[in-house]
Automatic annotation (TrEMBL):
Associates with the 50S ribosomal subunit. Residues 3-163 form the EngA-type G domain. GTPase that plays an essential role in the late steps of ribosome biogenesis. Belongs to the TRAFAC class TrmE-Era-EngA-EngB-Septin-like GTPase superfamily. EngA (Der) GTPase family. The gene is der. It comes from the Bacteria. This is GTPase Der. It comes from Sphingobium olei. GTP 1 binds at residues 9-16, 56-60, 119-122.
Length: 163
């Protein structure tokens, strides 16, 4: 059985874009609207010779915004409980939001190792967001661009010890 990586993070950070890139097929719906992934998806990912099962966690587009953190917590914890490593993605252009901080708290309380990925990091606009991500207390963020395929070698290095 392949090891499992769960991609977690708030809506619209680029989780499904990364999932599709690593699976090599457009199994997950990518959209400009936050939270278009309607359910959790699994695929077989390939990253520079590493093979693993990858889980893309769902969006919450029909949810009352007040209930978003609660719903996300259930989704996130279900995915993370069954993984070898959690890939926590933030949007480096948007910077760290209160929901990112909350997800970081759930992850710190969980046993799964966490790899922190600062997505949308192509170009200088993302530099402050990458710096902010250090403050989440989950180690060094990997500057990454799921859309442009930047940071794949660093992601490989970060995942390798856990798979
Ligand atoms: P999810 O809700 O976390 O699954 O996010 P999606 O994968 O659906 O992406 C949300 C939006 O971010 C889409 O418009 C993507 O094209 C965009 N996006 C994803 N990755 C990147 C990236 O590396 N750079 C930039 N600039 N945009 C990205
Ligand atoms: Mg998605």
């Amino acid at each position: 059985m392949l090891p499992t990586v769960a991609i977690v993070g708030r809506p619209n950070v680029g989780k499904s874009t990364l999932f599709n890139r690593l699976v090599g097929k457009k199994l997950a719906l990518v959209d400009d609207q936050p939270g278009v992934t309607r359910d959790r998806r699994e695929g077989e990912a390939h990253l520079l010779g590493l093979d693993f099962t990858i889980i893309d966690t769902a969006g919450y587009e029909d949810e009352d915004p007040q209930s978003l953190p609660g719903r996300m917590r259930i989704q996130t914890e279900a995915a993370v409980d069954n993984c070898d490593v959690a890939l926590f993605m933030i949007d480096a252009r948007a910077g760290i939001t209160p929901l990112d901080e909350e997800i970081a708290r759930w992850l710190r309380a969980n046993d799964a190792p966490v790899v922190l990925v600062a997505n949308k990091a192509e170009g200088k606009a993302a530099d402050p967001g990458v710096m902010e991500a250090f403050g989440l207390g989950l180690g060094e963020p990997i500057p990454f661009s799921a859309e442009h395929g930047q940071g794949l070698a660093d992601l490989f290095q970060a995942l390798l010890p856990h798979l």
